[in-house]
Amino acid sequence: MKQYNFSKGRKGESIAQKYLEENGFCVIDKNWRTRFGELDLIATKDNVLHFVEVKLKVGDYFGTPEEMIDKRKIWQVQKTAEAYLLKNKKTATQFLITQIDAVCIVVDSKDQVESIKFYKNLTII
Fold first, then answer.
1. Are 41 and 26 contacting, i.e. CB atoms less than 8 angstroms apart?
2. What is the pTM of this model?
């Protein structure tokens, strides 16, 4: 099951990267890890640094990808993003505006994309 989730996650990140690049983003890093967690995609667009959480679901019978992003998940991405900025000082000084975004993807049982939704500037409510 863990291997399935890993490959499903990588598939979602690949779809999300293509989507972002088609919409003018430049992906500069992916799967960046710390003890806090992992940043799926790190991208830039219009002088903004985007930390992008990717969620993929096969069908939405058991809930939507959006339902997997709660305030704990946003907090985890925020802490990991802070660690990224501390470790990558050049990038941190180059991009004064940062935000957490999400790409939520639903595919069918044959891995065909049914929907992609982009959510920008997520915050903890």
1. no
2. 0.91
Closest C-alpha among 23, 22, 19 to residue 116: 19
Tokens of 116: 């992609």
What count of other Cβ atoms lies within 10 Å of the Cβ of residue 65?
21
Instruction: In whole angstroms, give the CA distance from residue 34 to residue 79.
Output: 9
Strands 38-45 and 113-119: unpaired
- What span, in angstroms and rounded, lies between the C-alpha atoms of 9 and 48? 25
> Tens digit of pLDDT for each residue in 34-80?
988 999 999 999 999 999 999 999 987 788 999 999 999 999 999 99
Which sign, positive or negative, has the C-alpha torsion 26, 65, 119, 52? negative
Distance CA 99, CA 71 (A): 15
CB 124 within 8 A of CB 71: yes
Length of the chain: 125
* Residues paired with 33 in a beta bridge: 38
Q: Is the dihedral of CA 69, 123, 71, 29 positive or negative?
A: positive
Confidence at residue 8, expressed as pLDDT on a 0 to 100 scale? 67
